[in-house]
Design a protein that fits this description.
It comes from Lactiplantibacillus pentosus DSM 20314. This is Transcription regulator. The structure is a single chain. This protein is of the alpha+beta class and 186 residues long. The chain has 2 domains: 58 residues, no CATH class; 103 residues, D-Maltodextrin-Binding Protein, domain 2. The protein has 5 helices and 7 strands; from the N terminus they run αβββαβαβαββα. The relative contact order is 0.25. The C terminus is likely disordered.
């Protein structure tokens, strides 16, 4: 990764994406939407795959995959800033309750001392705010969700004038993208 890489985790809308790039507020923006204009292009970088983390003694935890329908009626602890995944889980899981937590540290404490299921993705191990210790001490098992809507394409958008500058990084990113749903063993 480039030494001067700075990550802004703020969520923005697709219309804001173009403005942020054109105003040089960002060089690259990750999105689940492909943007192609006269001065902006997007490159498919990989797929983000949703995983549900269930208490290991639940009968569903013995499955190798699960569907949203099989999660019906459960209560989940969920980080507030999950972008497009919020709409996906709310519309796909019948009669579910979602307890949203805006703070990452509070979320980690709640998951540590409760059995609420929570969601992660194949990209969660890359998140520097997730302590590996927290994942290893967890009494849950990560189960990939098999529904089509649990697999989100991820694009990186950039100014076409910056293509030569960003392509080396995008090639590195594509090569390192987790192709298989991976989650630390518990």
């Amino acid at each position: 990764m480039p030494a001067n890489l700075t990550v802004n985790r703020d969520l923005i809308t697709v219309p804001q994406l173009s403005d942020h790039l054109r105003n040089h507020q960002a060089s690259l923006i990750f999105s689940n939407q492909e943007v192609l204009t006269a001065d902006i292009e997007s490159r498919f970088i990989g797929t983000e795959n949703l995983i549900v983390n269930l208490q290991k003694f639940m009968y569903q935890a013995n499955q190798s995959r699960i569907t949203f329908h099989e999660l019906e009626g459960m209560s989940f602890i969920v980080l507030s800033a999950i972008g497009a995944w919020k709409q996906v889980i709310q519309s796909a899981i019948p009669n579910a309750k979602f307890l949203y937590q805006p703070e990452r540290m509070a979320f980690a404490e709640i998951t540590k001392y409760s059995d609420f299921p929570y969601f992660s993705t194949n990209l969660s191990p890359w998140d520097p705010t997730v302590a590996v210790r927290d994942l290893q001490d967890d009494n849950r098992v990560g189960i990939p969700i098999s529904d089509t809507s649990a697999h989100m394409p991820i694009y990186v958008s950039y100014l076409t004038s910056q293509r030569a500058n960003v392509l080396p990084f995008l090639n590195q990113l594509s090569a390192a993208w987790p192709a298989v749903i991976s989650h630390p063993q518990r």
